[in-house]
Design goal:
heterodimer; A: Rna Polymerase Sigma Factor, Chain: A; Arc Repressor Mutant, subunit A; 62% helix; globular; B: mainly alpha
Chain lengths: 211, 80
Amino acid sequence: MPNKPAKSQYDPIFEKELLPHVGALQTFAYHLTYNQEDADDLVQETYLKAYRFIDKYEKGTNAKAWLFKILKNAYINEYRKKVKQPTKVDFEDIVAFHDTDDDRVSGYSDLREEIFLHMMGDEVTTAINSLPIDFRTVILLCDIEGFTYEEIAAIIDVPIGTVRSRLFRARNLLKEKLTEYARQHGYTDVRGQKKSKRTTPAKTKDQSEEE
Amino acid sequence: MHNVDDLNELTKQVGMFFDQALDPQSRDAFLQRVSSDPLYQQAYQHEQLIRENLKKLIYRPGDASQLIQAIKNQIGGKEK
C-alpha cells in the first residue's frame, strides 16, 4: 500500500472533487450490474479504492474519469468474479474478437424524434441494458456521461479507434432496438412511402356531389 | 441540392460535434454552418433532441445521500 500523507490533507479533495460524482457512478454501476444493491456495493468499493490510492490523484485533474476507470476495473476484476457467472461464449465475445480500430463516426441522424413521444423511460433503459456490455459501456460513457473519446479510451483501456468503432456499432444497435420498440407500440415510420399510400386524398366538390 | 457525400459529411460532423471530437477550429466552422445552412440546423437540432431524450429518459437511481453517508462511514471506520 502506498504511503499516504496525513488524512486531513486528503479529506477536502475527497469531499469536493470525488464525492460529487457519486450519482453519475451510481447510474453507471446500475447499468453494468442491473441491480441497485450490487451497484451501490460497486460504488462504495470504488470510493474505498479511490481513498486508498488518493495520493495517485492529482488535485484539480479529471476526478470523474479517474473514478469511472476505478469502477470499471472493479467491476471487471471483482464484481464479475464474485457473481461467478458461468463461462459462456456469446455475442460479446464475438464482438470483442471482431473489434476494429476505425474512424467511423455515427450519430442518431436516422432515428426518428417522434419515437420518444411514446416512451416513458423504461424503454430507453431496457434498450441500453440489452446491449452487449462493451457497447453499453461506450454509450453510457459518451452519450449519457459526456466523456470524450480520449477519456473513454483511458477509462476502458482501448485505443481511440476502438472507441469510435464500438460507438458506431452500439448506436446502430440502439437505434434498431428503439425503432423496433416504437414499431411494436404502434409508431409507424412512414419515411420513404409515397404520399398517396399514407394519406387519403380529399374528395373534390364534384365527387362529393355525385355521392 | 446536397449530394450523398455532403449528407454523409453532415452526419459525421454532427456526430463529432456532439461527441466533442471536433478541434476548436472545426467546431467554430461547424457552428457557423449551422447558423447559415437550414439543413445543418435541422440536423443539429435533431441530434440534440435525441441525445437530450436519451439522457433524460434513462433510469438513474435516486437520492445518493444515503450512499454518500455509507461511504463516509466506511472510510471513517477504516481510518480508526
